[in-house]
């Protein structure tokens, strides 16, 4: 707990802008005093274990809310003394306040605290990165963030400068208009002299003429000055917009695109794409700066219309207005993103979810008139047409139920998002397939679209965003082939591609990275595929016998080799075999893979060569070459038909069906002729912690049966209930089999 406590302790050491950011996390929705006095309890709860998108998790959130209130009340009760009395009242008030705020929406409390903890950890991490040896990547990231923040500071100063200039211009123009009115008044006075007697006119006219000349000279000079002010201001706005474009390009075309790429790789089992809080804060700063400059440009245009002075300023202001509108349009349309992607293998008639988010929604007050988002499934061809701005109105390739959702604003986190929780693909309309393409190679996408206005309907935006490609299936048996299509697309898609083009072939090391990422994620293991494992896979993929990894570095694998053409002599593809291994390991072999007990990626000949140099009873576990999702035991023992000769035996492969009856560890325990796991580890040392405990004593006179595995050629002694002497089951000999089958027998257990 000391490590977690350090977050709050370090958060209190933050300075400057970081401290201000941390303090701004708190308010009436969650007082900072609650964070301080319950820091240990707060950091000790499993907030991340609650899925905010699942309404059924509300009871967990309610339990945490009740616990939080109870902790606050306990803390209040233990306060003593004069200072303690005030704190007791304050903490009691906070307990009542939090209950009132979150009792009907406890998931919002979880959302709020997750946001607080995540932001604190980020601020602490950023503050300590410069002094901690976390590697070049973090240093470069910190440097990049620093450059972005410096650019924002420059933009802030430029915007403040133009604001000051605009006020000065407005003040000077107002004074100019007053003087202009004065010149009109003088002119009117001069005109009225015509009605006066000539003596009076001659007496008053010279002074008025002199005054008019002075005012007109001033007006001419001041008009030139005002024009120069206007041009200078426009040039400063041009500079600001140039920097804005550059900053927006870095954030949208670099940082946001990288986040989307991480999201795509996360679909293959890569590390999580990370939160959007930093990106949202940058996009909000962009929105704020753009909007301030847009308002300034509009005010400058209003001043020009109020006092037209001939010159190039009208054209300049029109250009600035057009540019700033383009910039804000690009920001709004690019920040309408999919925070949580729909499943990429999508089964019809099955519920699925997705979340879309507008990163600048809160800052532009879009939530004041909450927009509705619609989801539609479209084909690859329809997606291409959409990106070319061709008319695809009302085109779809299927029907999605519950496909409309209103965007909601979350006050505590400042996020505007739409959570589609109960969508279901009712039907799909497939297009004509090309050549050998199967239904599990056909890609669709979910189109999310909405419309909203900003600035009191000044600007209306129609926004669209496409999900990652999805493959639609109607039966679970299609899942593995659909997953292959998704894996290849996620791994090898180029940024900015035409939907949904991918290379037809990739170099072997690229594919190794992709399948290793997928394997670790599926098996939920830090133990990935070793270089030896990858060489084995290369041998299988390319029908090669070379053991040298360098021989495969420049070899390419086509999509057809990956999951269209069967492996030589088999009725399954490379991917189907590999996927079967993953599924088996994930469901039944995970602890043994993590323990290093399964070599797995070894062929029959390699197993024989490895075992023949070891003592009898040494065994290893390898994945079956001939069966999808199978694992076999190979062991070295005497040849029963030739004294003094040893041979390697291979057990018929086990599959998921076998392990649903009896686990691998128990099966190994049953076979007494298996003594040492390769190279020399006693089997009980490796597997005993996974053995099923002995059955309890008989109840009501009934004897419980127990399933045991036997290999007839290698029988083990079991007690004879009548004589107490051992008997042997199935001790017949077969003529030197290399592959043996095992049987499960019910053996009565006597207490």
From TrEMBL:
<dbReference type="InterPro" id="IPR013801">
    <property type="entry name" value="STAT_TF_DNA-bd"/>
</dbReference>
<dbReference type="InterPro" id="IPR036535">
    <property type="entry name" value="STAT_N_sf"/>
</dbReference>
<dbReference type="GO" id="GO:0003677">
    <property type="term" value="F:DNA binding"/>
</dbReference>
<dbReference type="InterPro" id="IPR046994">
    <property type="entry name" value="STAT5_CC"/>
</dbReference>
<dbReference type="Pfam" id="PF21354">
    <property type="entry name" value="STAT_linker"/>
</dbReference>
<keyword id="KW-0804">Transcription</keyword>
<dbReference type="InterPro" id="IPR012345">
    <property type="entry name" value="STAT_TF_DNA-bd_N"/>
</dbReference>
<keyword id="KW-0539">Nucleus</keyword>
<keyword id="KW-0175">Coiled coil</keyword>
<dbReference type="InterPro" id="IPR015988">
    <property type="entry name" value="STAT_TF_CC"/>
</dbReference>
<dbReference type="InterPro" id="IPR036860">
    <property type="entry name" value="SH2_dom_sf"/>
</dbReference>
<dbReference type="GO" id="GO:0005634">
    <property type="term" value="C:nucleus"/>
</dbReference>
<dbReference type="InterPro" id="IPR008967">
    <property type="entry name" value="p53-like_TF_DNA-bd_sf"/>
</dbReference>
<keyword id="KW-0727">SH2 domain</keyword>
<feature type="coiled-coil region">
    <location>
        <begin position="138"/>
        <end position="172"/>
    </location>
</feature>
<dbReference type="InterPro" id="IPR048988">
    <property type="entry name" value="STAT_linker"/>
</dbReference>
<dbReference type="InterPro" id="IPR035858">
    <property type="entry name" value="STAT5a/5b_DBD"/>
</dbReference>
<dbReference type="InterPro" id="IPR001217">
    <property type="entry name" value="STAT"/>
</dbReference>
<dbReference type="Pfam" id="PF01017">
    <property type="entry name" value="STAT_alpha"/>
</dbReference>
<keyword id="KW-0238">DNA-binding</keyword>
<dbReference type="InterPro" id="IPR013800">
    <property type="entry name" value="STAT_TF_alpha"/>
</dbReference>
<dbReference type="Pfam" id="PF00017">
    <property type="entry name" value="SH2"/>
</dbReference>
<keyword id="KW-0805">Transcription regulation</keyword>
<dbReference type="Pfam" id="PF02864">
    <property type="entry name" value="STAT_bind"/>
</dbReference>
<comment type="similarity">
    <text>Belongs to the transcription factor STAT family.</text>
</comment>
<dbReference type="InterPro" id="IPR000980">
    <property type="entry name" value="SH2"/>
</dbReference>
<keyword id="KW-0963">Cytoplasm</keyword>
<feature type="compositionally biased region" description="Low complexity">
    <location>
        <begin position="731"/>
        <end position="742"/>
    </location>
</feature>
<feature type="domain" description="SH2">
    <location>
        <begin position="593"/>
        <end position="694"/>
    </location>
</feature>
<dbReference type="InterPro" id="IPR013799">
    <property type="entry name" value="STAT_TF_prot_interaction"/>
</dbReference>
<dbReference type="GO" id="GO:0007166">
    <property type="term" value="P:cell surface receptor signaling pathway"/>
</dbReference>
<dbReference type="Pfam" id="PF02865">
    <property type="entry name" value="STAT_int"/>
</dbReference>
<keyword id="KW-0597">Phosphoprotein</keyword>
<feature type="region of interest" description="Disordered">
    <location>
        <begin position="713"/>
        <end position="751"/>
    </location>
</feature>
<keyword id="KW-0010">Activator</keyword>
<protein>
    <recommendedName>
        <fullName>Signal transducer and activator of transcription</fullName>
    </recommendedName>
</protein>
<dbReference type="GO" id="GO:0005829">
    <property type="term" value="C:cytosol"/>
</dbReference>
<dbReference type="GO" id="GO:0003700">
    <property type="term" value="F:DNA-binding transcription factor activity"/>
</dbReference>
């Amino acid at each position: 707990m000391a490590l977690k406590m350090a977050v709050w302790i370090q958060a209190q050491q933050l300075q400057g802008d970081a401290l201000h950011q941390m303090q701004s996390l708190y308010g009436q929705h969650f007082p900072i005093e609650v964070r301080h006095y319950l820091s240990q309890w707060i950091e000790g709860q499993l907030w991340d274990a609650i899925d905010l998108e699942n309404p059924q998790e509300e009871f967990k959130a309610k339990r945490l809310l009740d616990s939080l209130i109870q902790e606050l009340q306990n803390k209040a009760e233990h306060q003593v003394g004069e200072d303690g009395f005030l704190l007791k009242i304050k903490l009691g008030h906070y307990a009542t306040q939090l209950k009132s705020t979150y009792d009907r929406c406890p998931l919002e409390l979880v959302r709020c605290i997750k946001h607080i903890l995540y932001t604190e950890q980020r601020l602490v991490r950023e503050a300590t990165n410069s002094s901690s040896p976390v590697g070049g990547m973090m240093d470069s990231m910190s440097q990049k963030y620093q450059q972005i923040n410096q650019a924002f500071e420059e933009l802030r100063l430029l915007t403040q400068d133009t604001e000051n200039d605009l006020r000065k211009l407005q003040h000077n123009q107002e004074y100019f208009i007053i003087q202009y009115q004065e010149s009109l008044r003088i002119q009117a006075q001069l005109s009225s002299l015509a009605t006066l007697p000539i003596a009076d006119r001659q007496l008053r006219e010279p002074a008025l003429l002199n005054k008019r000349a002075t005012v007109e000279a001033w007006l001419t000079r001041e008009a030139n000055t005002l024009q120069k002010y206007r041009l200078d201001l426009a040039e400063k706005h041009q500079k600001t917009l140039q920097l804005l474009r550059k900053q927006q390009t870095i954030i949208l075309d670099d940082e946001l695109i990288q986040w989307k790429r991480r999201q795509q790789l996360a679909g293959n089992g890569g590390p999580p794409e990370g939160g959007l809080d930093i990106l949202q804060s940058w996009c909000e700063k962009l929105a704020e700066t753009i909007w301030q400059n847009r308002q300034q440009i509009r005010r400058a245009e209003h001043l020009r219309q109020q006092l037209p002075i001939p010159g190039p300023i009208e054209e300049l202001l029109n250009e600035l207005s057009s540019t700033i509108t383009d910039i804000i349009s690009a920001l709004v349309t690019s920040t309408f993103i999919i925070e949580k992607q729909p499943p990429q293998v999508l089964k019809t008639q099955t519920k699925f979810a997705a979340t879309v988010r507008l990163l600048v929604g809160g800052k532009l007050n879009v939530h004041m008139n909450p927009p509705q988002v619609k989801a539609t499934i479209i084909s690859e061809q329809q997606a291409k047409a959409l990106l070319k701005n061709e008319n695809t109105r009302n085109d779809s390739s299927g029907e999605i139920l519950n496909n409309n959702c209103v965007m909601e604003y979350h006050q505590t986190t400042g996020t505007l998002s739409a959570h589609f929780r109960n969508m279901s693909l009712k039907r799909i309309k497939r297009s004509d397939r090309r050549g050998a393409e199967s239904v599990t190679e056909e890609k669709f996408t979910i189109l999310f679209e909405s419309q909203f206005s900003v600035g009191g309907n000044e600007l209306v935006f129609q926004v669209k965003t496409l999900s990652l490609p999805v493959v639609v299936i109607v039966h679970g048996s299609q899942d593995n082939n659909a997953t292959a299509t998704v894996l290849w697309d996620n791994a090898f898609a180029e940024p900015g591609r035409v939907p949904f083009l991918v290379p037809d072939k990739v170099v072997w090391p690229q594919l190794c990275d992709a399948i290793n990422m997928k394997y670790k994620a599926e098996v939920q293991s830090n133990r990935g595929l070793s270089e030896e494992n990858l060489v084995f896979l290369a041998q299988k993929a390319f029908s090669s016998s070379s053991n040298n990894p360098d021989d495969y570095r420049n070899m390419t694998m086509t999509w057809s080799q990956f999951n269209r053409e069967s492996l030589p002599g088999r009725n399954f593809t490379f991917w189907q075999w590999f996927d079967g291994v993953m599924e088996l390991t994930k469901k039944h072999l995970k602890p043994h893979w993590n323990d290093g007990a399964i070599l797995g990626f070894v062929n029959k000949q390699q197993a024989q060569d490895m075992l023949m140099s070891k003592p009898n009873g040494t065994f290893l576990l390898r994945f079956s070459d001939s069966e999808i999702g199978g694992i076999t035991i190979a062991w070295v023992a005497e040849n029963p038909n030739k004294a003094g000769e040893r041979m390697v035996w291979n057990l018929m492969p086990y599959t998921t069906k076998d392990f649903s009856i009896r686990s691998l560890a128990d099966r190994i325990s049953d076979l007494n002729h298996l003594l040492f796991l390769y190279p020399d580890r006693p089997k009980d040392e490796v597997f005993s912690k996974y053995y099923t405990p002995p059955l309890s004593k008989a109840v009501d006179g009934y004897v419980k049966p127990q399933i045991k595995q036997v290999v007839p050629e290698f029988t083990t002694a079991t007690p004879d209930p009548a004589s107490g002497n051992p008997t042997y089951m199935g001790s017949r000999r077969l003529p030197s089999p290399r592959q043996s089958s095992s049987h499960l027998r019910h053996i009565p257990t006597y207490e």
